[in-house]
Amino acid sequence: MRKKLIGLAVAMFVVMGLSVFAHAAEKKTRVLRLGFDSSLDSAQGVGAKEMARVADELSNGKIEIQLFADGALGAGPRMIEMVKKGELDLYQGGASLFSPLEPRLNVFDIPYLFDSVDQAYKVLDGKLGREMLAALEPHGLKGVAFWEDGIRSITNNVRPIVKPEDLAGLKMRVTPANPVFVTLWASLGTKPTPLPFGEIHAAIKSGKLDGQENSIARIHDGKFYEVQKYLSLTRHLYEPLIQIANLEKFNALPKRQQEILLKASRAGAAAQRKFANDNEAKFLADMKAKGLAINEVDVTPFREKARPVIETGYVAKNGDAWLKKINASLKPKKAKAK
């Protein structure tokens, strides 16, 4: 009997010890590192700081997100590999950077896929967006949320771009790790050069490049107005950013912390989008005051020349399932007959 009592006491002690240990582990601050290419003052930086704030608030200080901006941990492809290996907790980068893993994400490389950011949000924040994020899971990545790079336009030092023919011969920077961009810009007559975002400014200044294309927020953040003469508002491509985490590490988090991380990321994305959209006119005015010549563009001839090249190749390689879903979701709903 005495042995049974001793055994019971030992068992209770072990259970109590495990309970205390689990409680202590839950109370311990979890530090997560988030890497990205832009500065802390950029739209991405604004969103990242809001994500960190919300995670801290919802977790009562038990989740701390440390921010590594300006590509401090390497270029985008390098940071994706770090997340896959568990060396980095979070990364956010252009959807095109993930196309070597999931080629269907090249759907966002189709020019003029969306006419506005609101159209893009409708797709990305809905059922199809969740399906797209889940497509990264077989590669060991958790698609946390869609952020954004924005609608892209062209800067260069040779001439204002008014018609597609004006692009002929330009040495253009394109996003690395995505051959679709090389195909697009070569078809428009440029000489495409893949290069990480952080190297664009120096390459233009040295004459290695004539121009590049990015969202207004990114052009302003990169201070390309310092080294470029012309900004032509071609608005040819909307590129989302995808924030990722290591899938195994994410699944190992307590359910409550998973929920907090997802909520915080969505809050960061919303803050980033709002900052970029609210400040676009301000950014344009600021760059114009600094000497950048800005011109509007009739996008119709650009759409007619650029879209079929990429769309045809995309469908041949990946099928049209995602493209059909995007087009269907953007069709105006018919009014119900009374």
Regions with little confidence, pLDDT below 50 for 5+ residues:
2-26
Strand content is: 15-25%
Shape: globular
What's the main sheet like? 7 strands, mixed
Relevant CATH superfamily: Bacterial extracellular solute-binding protein, family 7
Counted beta strands: 9
| CATH topology term | D-Maltodextrin-Binding Protein, domain 2
In total, how many domains does the architecture comprise?
1
Quote the average pLDDT: 90
DSSP helical segment count: 12
Task: List its salient traits.
20% strand; 12 helices; D-Maltodextrin-Binding Protein, domain 2; two-stranded parallel ribbon; alpha/beta; globular; disordered N terminus; 7-stranded mixed sheet; 338 residues
Give an overview in words:
This protein is α/β, with parallel strands linked by helices. The chain has one domain: D-Maltodextrin-Binding Protein, domain 2 (3-Layer(aba) Sandwich), CATH 3.40.190. It is 47% helix and 20% strand. The strands form two sheets. Strands 1, 2, 3, 4, 7, 8 and 9 form a seven-stranded mixed beta sheet that branches. It has a two-stranded parallel sheet with strand order 5-6. The protein is globular. The protein starts with a helix and ends in an 8-residue tail after the last helix.
Layout of helices and strands:
Layout lengths: L1 H26 L2 E6 L7 H16 L4 E6 L7 H9 L5 E5 L22 H8 L2 H8 L6 E16 L14 E4 L4 H9 L3 E4 L5 H7 L4 E5 H6 L8 E17 H6 L2 H35 L3 E4 L3 H19 L2 H10 L8
Parallel strand pairs: 1-2, 1-3, 5-6, 8-9
Antiparallel strand pairs: 3-8, 4-7, 4-8
Helix pairs in contact: 2-10
